[in-house]
């Protein structure tokens, strides 16, 4: 009887257990009813003990099975969205939560550890959240980009440099404040919450092709100090060193960044083949064979800033200073007449340059009721330039040609801008007004003395609307530009008005991919250096001449981009076309017995480009690999010439991290540009490094170009029918350049969320015309 009762009790208990196990179902959606993929769903007890977990599928659905009755808390998290917490009290049966709306994260992910590179695509930018591995393997904000391997960037972690292929404008920002590269070098990776990678920046960013905005945490007390030393071992003539400090007190932050860099090589030379075709059809071919020369440069940056912010407003004042001294850029060699081996000249071509540039940047932001923001920004810049060039040709100690160009320039500029933004439901409207005024006063001393005084201004008013219709996101905007120029004593004044529309469309596909189309019209104004009414002697046969009658022109551009991301795999395919009628490009012609090099508004310039990027990783949270390949096809139509040029290029990066050990390899072939009649070759380099991180310190040993004997700095080609050339520059000491690096960062203080400064303006064009071969 007792055994029978025990069996009955066990049977009832087992039946009860199976009867009471239940499932929790739900589907995650955005407020626009799009599924949220790969979100983490964790079921916890009320005292935070883990019970069960899963991830949402491609359609946003999830299921937690075999859940026993009880009191629970459901935690739903996904990169780019606010974490949802759902209380499940007294659950006794199956639960269908139906649609759960996920709100987009607006600023921070403080305290969340990301284990796989998370990147959320929006119509105009990518929200990139570094992994713990990537943060550990980085020492500053620049080499963190090397770890992230974002498409369309050229990152040289050895030199702490980042640029765009083709030399487009790249803007850096920190919490929305536009900053310089030196400020990014001062960032401690552990303080970076995310990076907003604007690969299609709006009208308010001016002519920037890419904007990189670091969203960081900021102490409300205490501060941070950091030092970074990178110096050559095989040659002492290379070094990049920096010191930074930040102090915080309540709503205020004081910061100071100092950078000092030097280059000194004595094994630089160039080889050059020139062909001159005279009016009677005869030709002269000259070959320059270089011998070792000296290059020396020292430049320093000092940036100091004060920032005040509370919940309603922010004020930022920054004082920047640049001092760049290049006492030597010297070429030596022999110039031979290819038709007569005995006709050989000794040449010496030396340049020196000094640049001083102080900048004052004042910024104010007011956050108002009903999702409104007002931003005001004023930037004043002074640029002093002193440039000297000596060119000599001699035979048997007898001077035949002696050129001495001395240029002194003073440029003053003021940039003022105001932006108003208003959120309209799920849309955002922004409108702005920006004015740039520049004045230059330059003197040129050569065979003749010249003085130029130029006044140039540009006013830009725009309106832009960003919104979404189901799976189609859009940004539409338009602006009007007024361009003005005057040169004293020349009578070449102009006033131009330009209409600048812009459309950006992105359609989100169901396979975690998207298709994006961009079309825009920009205006381009002549540089003050090209507008200078000045002649400068180049050598015994050539002079360089500015053209004060250049006019602004339009630039039409369209791009189609496809992106896909699945787990550790990412792909990006881009096709683009640019058309620039009346583009300002170079030309040459005979005048008396001299070749004149100048610029003019030519017929048109076109570019057809394609690029594909593939990235894998992190694999096992250790290895990440990226490769990019592309082709550029240039079509240059001048008034008296037509040229085409095709350039294939490749970029590759590899990052390996194990515990505190870090290894990197990077390489890129040359991205060449062709404009007018001139091809300018890009850098072709590779590097490898091995590092170790110990708490707040890190050490690394790296080598630049370990697999080449002689480093080809750049190649340049001109296809003029009157005076063509093919020139190659070399610096031998950059081959197998061994570099040792040391970084020490420490910080103290509490953290709080910071407001975002929305813009930053700068003037870096000195406005002087420089001559040279």
From TrEMBL:
State what protein this is by name: Outer membrane protein beta-barrel domain-containing protein
Q: Which SUPFAM superfamilies match?
A: Carboxypeptidase regulatory domain-like, Porins
Domain Outer membrane protein beta-barrel spans what residues? 405-742
């Amino acid at each position: 009887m007792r055994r029978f009762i025990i069996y009955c009790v066990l049977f009832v208990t087992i039946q009860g257990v199976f009867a009471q196990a239940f499932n929790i179902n739900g589907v995650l959606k955005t407020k626009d009813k799009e599924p949220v993929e790969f979100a983490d769903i964790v079921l916890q007890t009320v005292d935070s003990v883990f019970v069960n977990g899963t991830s949402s599928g491609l359609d946003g659905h999830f299921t937690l099975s075999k859940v026993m009755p009880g009191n629970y808390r459901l935690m739903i998290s996904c990169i780019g969205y606010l974490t949802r917490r759902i209380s499940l009290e007294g659950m006794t049966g199956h639960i269908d939560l139906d649609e759960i709306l996920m709100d987009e994260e607006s600023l921070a992910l403080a305290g969340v550890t990301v284990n796989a590179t998370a990147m959320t695509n929006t119509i105009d930018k990518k929200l990139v959240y570094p992994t713990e591995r990537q943060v550990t393997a980085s020492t500053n904000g620049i080499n963190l980009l090397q770890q992230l391997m974002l498409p369309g960037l050229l990152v040289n972690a050895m030199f702490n440099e980042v640029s765009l292929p083709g030399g487009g404008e790249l803007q850096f920002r920190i919490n929305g404040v536009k900053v310089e590269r030196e400020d990014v070098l001062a960032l401690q990776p552990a303080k970076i919450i995310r990076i907003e990678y604007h690969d299609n920046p709006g009208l308010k960013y001016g002519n920037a092709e890419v904007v990189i905005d670091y969203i960081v945490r900021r102490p409300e007390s205490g501060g941070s100090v950091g030092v970074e030393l990178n110096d050559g071992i095989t040659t002492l003539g290379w070094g990049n060193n920096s010191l930074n400090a930040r102090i915080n007190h309540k709503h205020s932050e004081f910061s100071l960044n100092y950078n000092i860099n030097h280059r000194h090589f004595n094994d630089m030379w160039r080889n050059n083949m020139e062909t001159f075709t005279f009016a009677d059809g005869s030709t002269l071919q000259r070959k320059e064979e270089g011998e070792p020369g000296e290059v020396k440069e020292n430049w320093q940056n000092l940036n100091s800033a004060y920032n005040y912010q509370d919940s309603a407003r922010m004020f930022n004042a920054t004082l920047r200073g640049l001092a760049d001294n290049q006492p030597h850029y010297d070429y030596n060699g022999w110039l031979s007449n290819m038709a007569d081996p005995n006709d050989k000249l000794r040449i010496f071509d030396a340049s020196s340059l000094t640049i001083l540039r102080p900048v004052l940047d004042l910024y104010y932001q007011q956050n108002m009721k009903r999702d409104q923001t007002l931003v005001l920004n004023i930037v004043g810049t002074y640029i002093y330039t002193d440039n000297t060039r000596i060119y000599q040709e001699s035979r048997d100690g007898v001077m035949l040609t002696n050129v001495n160009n001395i240029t002194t320039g003073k440029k003053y500029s003021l940039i003022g801008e105001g932006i108003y933004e208003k959120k309209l439901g799920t849309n955002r409207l922004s409108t702005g007004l920006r004015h740039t005024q520049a004045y230059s006063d330059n003197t040129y001393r050569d065979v003749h003395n010249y003085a130029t005084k130029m006044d140039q201004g540009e006013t830009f008013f725009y309106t832009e609307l960003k919104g979404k219709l189901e799976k189609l996101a859009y940004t539409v905007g338009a602006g009007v530009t007024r361009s003005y120029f005057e040169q004293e004593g020349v009578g070449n004044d102009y006033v131009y008005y330009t209409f600048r529309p812009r459309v950006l469309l992105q359609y989100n596909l169901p396979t975690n991919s998207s298709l994006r189309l961009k079309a825009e019209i920009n205006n381009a104004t002549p540089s003050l250096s090209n507008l200078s009414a000045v002649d400068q002697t180049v050598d015994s046969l050539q002079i360089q001449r500015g053209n004060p009658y250049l006019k602004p022109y339009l630039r039409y551009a369209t791009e189609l981009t496809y992106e896909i991301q699945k787990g550790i795999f990412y792909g990006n395919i881009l096709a683009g076309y640019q058309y620039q009628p009346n583009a300002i490009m170079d030309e040459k012609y005979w005048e008396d017995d001299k070749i004149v090099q100048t610029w003019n508004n030519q017929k048109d310039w076109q570019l057809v480009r394609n690029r594909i990027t593939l990235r894998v990783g992190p694999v096992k949270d250790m290895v990440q690999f990226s490769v990019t390949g592309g082709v550029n096809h240039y079509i240059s139509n001048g008034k008296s010439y037509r040229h085409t040029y095709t350039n294939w290029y490749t970029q590759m990066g590899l990052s390996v991290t194990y515990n505190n050990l870090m290894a990197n390899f990077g390489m890129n072939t040359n991205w060449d540009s062709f404009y007018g009649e001139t091809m300018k070759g890009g850098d072709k380099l590779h590097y490898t490094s091995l590092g170790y991180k110990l708490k707040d310190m890190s050490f690394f040993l790296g080598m630049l170009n370990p697999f080449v004997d002689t480093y080809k700095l750049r190649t340049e080609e001109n296809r003029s029918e009157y005076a063509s050339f093919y020139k190659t520059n070399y610096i031998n000491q950059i081959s197998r350049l061994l570099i040792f690096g040391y970084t020490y960062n420490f910080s103290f203080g509490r953290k709080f969320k910071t407001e975002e400064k929305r813009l930053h303006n700068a003037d870096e064009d000195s406005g002087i015309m420089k001559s040279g071969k």
